[in-house]
Specification:
The protein is mostly helical. It is built from ten helices and two strands; from the N terminus they run H-H-H-H-E-E-H-H-H-H-H-H.
């Protein structure tokens, strides 16, 4: 289950999406996430799904690999679906005691669940097609205008990228600790949900120790290479806005405009 999390992982490739400027991909991902909260009907979600499917096809990242990242958050998706289905008032379809399912509740549950799935896939696709160092440079360049306000752009970009980069590493370490404890008789799979959650508590201490060890090793490695960052840092490959980046930005703008126009049209009618 832990190995199924794809957020923070990089899938090597040379597709058109892989070669895009990281700034375009970061802004495009934020724009896509924002548009997901604008669509509220089937046509709007069809446009969002179609656009995301096109990006996945162009990126050449296997769809099975992307969908694998949804397994660990299936419980969250199911919980969101259930809450919206039972807590939304409207035209009653099914009523059994205090349980009531409305037509509006089914619509909201379906749309909220689909919105969450598209949000996770879109965010994962950005990290899958962007190298960690490129992601750091892109975030730093986007935050650079705020340096005049005293914002440490480089340090913030580095912290966010390291956090994303080490998600797979910590998950792999957790998996190793679980297997080691299972070999000693620990049981993480039997019992109800509450019992299985309590059985994971003994993992926290060795996991924290491992995380601090990894952080210390990383700090020593960066210090041994005389890493300082900030204004004095140089780059082997400088980011340049190419023609393909302009095309991608134009397509993303057209997609956002189409979604906004469709949402306004749906609201008007």
């Amino acid at each position: 289950m832990l190995r199924d999390i794809t957020l923070g992982q990089y899938y090597p490739g040379s597709s058109w999406i892989h070669r895009l400027d990281p700034r375009v991909k970061i802004l495009g991902t934020f724009a896509y996430i924002i548009t997901l909260f604008l669509v509220k009907d089937f046509l709007g979600f069809a446009i969002a799904v179609g656009f995301l499917a096109l990006v996945i096809a162009v990126s050449k990242v296997p769809l099975r690999f992307i969908l694998r990242g949804l397994k660990p958050i299936f419980i969250i998706i199911l919980f969101t679906f259930t809450v919206n289905m039972f807590m939304t008032k409207g035209t009653t379809l099914v009523e059994w005691g205090f349980i009531r399912i409305s037509e509006e509740g089914l619509y909201n549950a379906f749309f909220m669940g689909l919105r969450l799935v598209l949000l996770i896939i879109g965010s994962s696709l950005m990290t899958l097609t962007t190298k960690p160092i490129s992601l750091t440079d892109g975030i730093e360049r986007l935050l650079s205008p705020f340096r005049r306000m005293g914002l440490p752009a480089h340090e913030l970009a580095m912290m966010m990228t390291i956090a994303l980069r080490f998600i797979p590493t910590l998950l792999e370490e957790t998996d190793k600790i679980m297997k080691a404890q299972m070999a000693r008789g620990a049981d993480f799979e039997s019992g109800n949900l509450l019992k299985r959650a309590k059985s994971l508590i003994p993992l926290l201490v060795p996991l924290f120790i491992s995380a601090f060890r990894i952080a210390q090793d990383l700090a020593m490695a960066m210090e041994a290479r005389c890493y300082r960052g900030g204004e004095q840092r140089t780059r082997m490959h400088s980011m340049k806005f190419a023609a393909r980046d302009g095309v991608a930005a134009l397509l993303m703008t057209l997609f956002v405009a189409l979604v906004v126009a469709q949402a306004n049209w749906a609201a008007w009618w």
